[in-house]
Sequence to fold (243 residues):
Amino acid sequence: MSSSDTERIHIRTAQNVGIQYEIANPGDRLLAGILDGLVIFALSIFLTFVGSMLELRSQIYATFNFLMVIFYFPLCEIFFRGQTIGKSLRRIRVTSLDGSPARLGQFLIRWLTGFLEYWMFLGTLPLVILVVRPRGQRLGDIAAGTVVVKLRRSLTLEDTVLAGIQEDYQPVFPEAVNLESAEVELIKDVLAAIEKSEDRKVRMNVATKAQRTFENKLGVSSSQNAISFLETLLSDYNFYQGR
Fold:
């Protein structure tokens, strides 16, 4: 496996579009862990303060602190779609190896395996495995079939193929308001891949598949060519988001 293979994961989406995501490096994951540790420490101080103000027995808020430390990571990753506060700040996320969102069972497997890695080996084992393993997977990731990837920046007008929306712009597809941010980012990825491709047949094939997918999802039909259709969807989405 080449070095580039160890740094990126190739994901094929449900729309049959290939996208590359950069694997989160050990430094990112270590910093995310440190940030999460600081969050846990701050929450622990807060709970102790609240318990003292309410004159609760020390055993009560000590129990709350213990439960918070134990369940912080799985609860965050389950409810924040693969991110803890530290991961969010470092813009990394736990995802399935096929690129789909990680499932409840996968988060639980990562969490349970973490006890073995961190408590029995004092955190040294996962760090070593992250460095030597392709895709940067610790034991929990291997067991759960997950990987931690870097996220792209949030989509902005400048990220799209359009420079901006004119004041008198008239949207073509009102249904574009129903697009989710992940779907908008996918459209952007498709257009970026098309722009880089030198094979016109491949470009139109990818664009046409994406057009059909979004026409079916939104319940619309267009006589535009596939690339123009995708660009129009982005423009319409930005129009409604900017109002």
